[in-house]
Structure formats: structure tokens, C-alpha cells
Amino acid sequence: MTRDLRVGVVGFGWMGQVHARALSRLLQHYPDAPLRPRLVAVADNAPDDRTQRAAAAYGFEHLLTDWRELVAHDEVDLVCVTGPNFIHRDVAVAAAQAGKHLWVEKPAGRSSAETAEIVAAVEAAGVQAATGFNYRNVPAVERAREIVASGRIGTVEHTTVRFLADYSADPDAALSWRFQNEFSGTGVLGDLVSHAADLVQHVVAPIAELVVDRATFIPQRRAAVAGAMHYEKGAGELGDVENEDYVNALLRLADGSRGILESSRTAVGEQNTYGFEVHGTRGAVAWDFRRMNELRVCADQDYLNGFYATEYAGPGDGELSAFQPGTNNPIGFDDLKVVEARRLVESIATGKPVGATIHDALAAAKVVDAMILSSDERKWVTL
After folding, report:
1. 162, 75 in Cβ contact below 8 A?
2. Quick one: pLDDT at residue 204?
3. What are phi and psi of 292, to 5 degrees?
4. Domains assigned to the chain
5. What's this model's pTM, rounded to 2 decimal places?
């Protein structure tokens, strides 16, 4: 008989709800999953009634306002850490020390030092810890990784990865916690660049050296009203934005190839413009999140006048067959989190890490810290 995996969720904004949905759907897509998630408790101190709505919509058994009470709860085996960045380290370390498994959204800590504290706590406790690098779970991305590793496009020469968004493009948007380093740690670096760095390292090779420029295009914003999200209008006094809106980096990868990484949270006209291009000596692959089910491939041709062909992800690619029966039946963002949940559950059941782990979060955090150092000191930095 499949035993229960009793779940507690800390923070019930959008991402907390995504985690709850993913765990609730797990057995629908993976009926052979070794554990059956049960939503036991949610902790959130938002001023509105969203925890009450959570109980009604998701079936949580206990509604709490203090995450410490959730972490100490005897009926919780897994803690999802989905609140603001400034609580991630404290919640994750406490949960690991209490013997709970973890599903931590990125950035796991506000810095690599905080992330390393989570890693140490996880290793000392012997628990499993997944990190929310969902884009690596896209079936087309899995195929791209296989193509690169197979040598089908030859030796990789250079990679371009872009994560562009407009969620902070409005200069009247509130000065929320995301813009203050005490609470966020960084700006677009932790939010989007951590994803981009993980994709480069997952698909191609570890980043060995980098040089970075970063900018803050909207230097001041009006203070937020209590409980406001980062995209809502500010209404208070003007305050300083303490972190970066934009990052541009040159990369040298461990395999000797080169790369360009660009990311912005203030790019008007861009919504979730996330993707990469990998160019090799014999071809190339390119992927765009906005066309998630498609992979553009240039391979098996001559050096000159080669062209891309679009390949559609099918049941043999990644985890697509758990969601759709045939080629070019697309999956969506929430489905990627179900894949994450499946891999975490397998990790917990077997004691062997599967999928993106807290160690991958630490690798990305080290890239972010190196980018800050490079930008501050205007120099190449070796990781």
C-alpha cells in the first residue's frame, strides 16, 4: 500500500499554491508514485483570508500563521518553502534540523552563504531537498541536453541564454520586498538569473569564469501598502531600489566554450522571454519557453547554408508521456512542477537524489555571487 507523504506549505502566495496543486495532482499523472502526498498544514501570515481559502480549495487540515509551528508539527514529513526570499534559509534549516524533507523555491538563500547553510543542514540531517528549477524539466530541454551530450551538433562553441521579463517595468509599481536587499538578497540575479545559470550548467557545462555588467533602470519607487505584490502600484514615500533590474554577462564554460547571459525584469514588451541557443561545430539547438513544446535543431547538414527544423516534443522526451498521449500535445508551467514533485517523492522514497537538488541551488547561488563581485570590481571572476 502506498503510504502518505504529509505536506506542509510555508507561504501561500502564487508559488505556494503551485506546489499544493502539483502535489495534489501527483498520483493523477504518476499512479505508481511510491508516496501519496497529503496536504496537512499551511502557514501564512498574509493580512487577507487566503489561508481560509486554501483550506476550502486545497483541503489543508491545519491553518497556521507561524511557520515555526508548521516545522515542528508531528504530522508533517515534507516542508515546501515558498515564502519571500528572506525566510527561506531560516525555514529550510529549521525544517531539516527537525528531520523534514524540503522543496525550496529559488533562490534558496539570499546568498551562497545562506544556501550553503541549508546544504549543511540537509546533509547533517540526511533528508532530501529539491529546488525549484522547473525549466530543466521541459521535455524539449531534456532533448536539447541529450543532443548536446551526444555530440550531434559537434563540440559546443558558444551559448546564449536570455531571461527577459516586464514584471517590474512599471515605474509606479510598489517598492516591495523584492527591491530591498535585506529581504530579497538580490534583484533579477536571484529571481531570473539563477534559472538561466542552472539551464546553462544543466544543458551545456558548468560556468568557470565570468565578467558582468548590471544596472538599475528605475532607481526609486513608492512604498508599498501592506501586503501588496511587487506589480501593484505604490502609494507611499519614494524609496531607493537597492538591487539590479538588468544583468549582462560574458561566460567561459568548463568545456572551453563561451557564453552570453542576459536578463531583465524591466524589459517592456517581454513576458517570460526565456530561452537559449547552443551553437556547436556541426550544428545548433534553440529553445524558447513561449513555445515550450518545440525545439529548433540544426544538425546533420553541411557547414554552410544549414537551417533549423522544428522538432516537437513527444512521448519519448522527458516526462511528456505522463501528461499527454502524443507529439505536440503541449504541457504547461504547472505540469513542470508536477515533474519536480515526482522526482522529489522518488528521492524521499529511495534516499537517492533525483532532479534538481539543493546542491544545484548552491551552484547557481555561487554564480550569482560571482556576478556581484565581477560587477562591483569590474573584472573577470573565476568560480
Report:
1. no
2. 98
3. -55, -35
4. 3-134 (3.40.50.720), 138-327+355-382 (3.30.360.10)
5. 0.95
